[in-house]
Amino acid sequence: MKKIIFLGLVSILIFSCKSKNSATSTKIDSKSQTAIKGEWVISSVNYPGSEVIKVTSFDLADSKCFIGSKWKFVSMSNKGNMALNSPSCTTYSTPISWFINKEGEFVLKILDEAKAKTVKSGYVLRVANQTDKSFQLIDKINVGGTLTDVVYQFQKIN
């Protein structure tokens, strides 16, 4: 009897400690996802101090290398790809997995030829100012102890 009570208490403790606010555990916002499907280009990357501070975006390259990058989002499969093609930066292309949750968070995994379920890390950005022809992804970075927004401006190609 003591073992059953002990196991019951341990089970309650484990389930009560589980985070319910994870970006990946929330429901998908189908309307926002459908609006993003298609091909896009990043037209600008802005953040305070951009003339002085270098930001490495998505652990891949300098944020300015993302200007002109092409992104393809397929809403039905939550797949796509991105390609850096700036003449002053190293070219790079990779498949991605993505979705937008009900909290307006864009969850991105860079796959580098791996399957999405084997990639354990990713990025969570906020979706803002979404229209038929443009939207923004906003990342938060720490600059000298202050959280700063990095704004990626997307423009629809077709």
From TrEMBL:
PROSITE patterns: PROKAR_LIPOPROTEIN. It comes from the Bacteria. This is Lipocalin-like domain-containing protein. It comes from Flavobacterium rivulicola. The lineage of its organism: Bacteria, Pseudomonadati, Bacteroidota, Flavobacteriia, Flavobacteriales.
